[in-house]
Amino acid sequence: MAISSREVEHFLTRNHDAVLSTIRMNGATQLSAVTVGFYKGGAIFTTTKSRAKFINLNRTPECSLLISNSNWRPYLVLEGKAHIFSADTLDPKTLKNILRAAYRSAAGK
Fold this sequence. Notes:
Elements: H1 5-12, E1 17-23, E2 29-35, E3 37-39, E4 42-44, H2 52-59, E5 62-68, E6 76-81, H3 92-106
Antiparallel strand pairs: 1-2, 1-5, 3-4, 5-6
């Protein structure tokens, strides 16, 4: 069932626990627990370049994200392509602002 960006925002401002599904080099699924927030119509989370999720998404951006709370109900699944914000592609000030927004949103602020 498709939902609007407004409904996604409403859900993500209240639910921050998520499981990210990425694709390994061998085609197998790799799952990661992440904390998410709402950012510009979708979900945002942070990671480091050494993590499997970053390496997988950098190679193959297709992913799924199951978002819920600690009770696992209700939940929302987002599927699509990840957009990576990094120091390699953004100026430091822009990246700092995006990271600040990500941390604040994931904290429910």
